Amino acid sequence: MHIVVCIKQVPDSAQIRIHPVTNTIMRQGVPAIINPFDLFSLEEALRLKDKVGARVTVLTMGPPMAETSLRKALSLGADDAVLLTDRKFAGSDTLATSYALTSAIQKLAEEDPVDIVFCGKQTVDGDTAQVGPGIATRLGFEQLTYITKIEDLDIASREIVVQRRSEGGVQVLKTKLPCMITMLEGTNTIRFGKMDDLFRAARYELKTWSRDFTGAEEGRVGLKGSPTVVSKVFVPKPRAEKAKMIVADADTPDAMAAAAIDAIFAAQPKLAGDLLARAAAGL
Amino acid sequence: MSEPSKPQGRKFQLPEHLKIYKNVWVIVEQERGIVHSVSLELLGEARKLADKLGVEVGAVVLGADSPDLNRICGDAIGYGADIVYKVTDPALADYRTDPYCRVMTEVVNTHKPEIVLLGATTLGRDLAGAIATTLATGLTADCTELDIYADNRSLAATRPTFGGTLLCTIQTLAYRPQMATVRPRVMAMPERDDARTGRVIEIQPDLREEDIVTKVLNFIADREQNEAQLAFADIIVSAGKGLGKVENMKLVFDLARVLGAEVGVTRPLVQAGWATNDRQVGQTGKTVRPKLYIAAGISGAIQHRVGMEKSDLILAINTDPNATIFDFAHLGLVGDALKILPALTDAFGRRLSINRMAG
Q1: Residue-number span of the structural domain to which A154 is assigned
Q2: Nearest residue to A36 (alpha-carbon basis) of A237, A190, A180
Q3: Could you tell me which residue ranges the Electron transfer flavoprotein alpha/beta-subunit N-terminal domain spans (chain B) (predicted)?
Q4: Residues A115-154: pLDDT tens digits?
Q5: What is the CATH number of domain B16-211?
Q6: Quick check: A137 contacting B, CB < 8 Å?
């Protein structure tokens, strides 16, 4: 079994600040981390490795500094790591990114056929959730997104049974390898790496691949290969007025609560009516 | 054209053969006969875009042929569609990526819509990513605003990025269709008009179950479970870190019970294990649009704000008079949520003459 896990190095979005004057993102001092959603997928891949035996290759596309995220994944137990990096990839949107990553996965498959590709549910910087489905479609793999549980994996018959989150419930799906899986957040607890994996990760010689090496066509990556164009970036407009502050007769919780309810009912008479009707109906 | 610097080597003019693409489509999401409300919200939005472009609204309804599906086709017209593409096959009864993607690719290639909209749901995002790849076109995820650029008639799709700290507007200039997914509860629900008429085009795709690798073994509906239904709640009482400790969550649930409300939380509370992620409101959680949103002990981080700022009325309770949340809440109360929540519970209880005591 050969499992490829696609990860992305992202700025920790919780720590991003906007420059008050220029309205640009201030990246200085913002730590780069593995996209948190990717870790749930990496963990699931490592669990499959523990359970049924597999070689886990971790793949990322990004600038040379993304190497640190690959080493982190190696220290958690991934066997191999590939950094897909080339200035020609800069500016790729999700269509171009999934094409570039697919070219690298196909290159990996030439040596060792790929049975499962794991991707993060989405990234915390782009939030699109489009790269995983893009890769699955290009590879012709079965697509399993928002997976909450891998119930069963039978190597001999190449059958996999999973639970998939949908809006109205949970689907139990049975399909065949090869497939692309994205795990839902909170599906498993991310492990701490073992000491010997940590040492191996530090010594590991990364594979660094360029566009030429994977054979991805130049016109289909980077800005040229991206159908979408960012025409405007801006900071959300603050609401014109600030909150109307509620002032109570006395500084007691009861007086404040009473004043708050008066203010709510005054602003939303219909809501007050609905609530009273509901109470009268004994609900 | 009022557009920033154009990078070298990119196509910005729509090629001649793509100019015949017209109409605004919504892929109507239905699961076991139940339409997701985001599809109806999108029909209202598609109506506005189509009126600006002077074109028609198309709704694509996919599934196994049934009375439910016919009812949904009627709903689509009532909520704004001029044409319904009713695509039926037993293999489309349950959502699976492969048959849905294959069928949609073919229907789009045949009928050539210029804009295709889907809900940013588990189904919509799964399907949109696949279709955009087979059609090799642009897709903008999780939009919160859609408009038409007057100068070139292209779709301006605005979405939050970097966890909501920034918004960006994205266009697909030289490719068709232009695709976008839109968050549920962001667009207003249109009024249903039973007098509206429309045409139904029946499509029977060439699908064979034996060609479809993925099988649906079972479906466990949430209706039979006891999960939070935040997205559809009229009133939400939400808690943030200001509540101090997990035991104080009881105060939030007490008030919610008196109001018949749902309980929401911020992301740090989910991470701390105080609540499950089905209660998380915000960028990586649910977008909500209740009539009343009570935010207790929530500072107002942008990641939370983008999930709840469309609420009709936001009441914020915070000890810090300078908390960011007062910048976008409608009503502000400076005070200790731990004391005010029980007082609100009692006072609402009395006003609503609810006899049973909370707790």
Answers
A1: 2-225
A2: A190
A3: 24-216
A4: 999 999 999 888 899 999 999 999 999 999 999 999 999 9
A5: 3.40.50.620
A6: yes
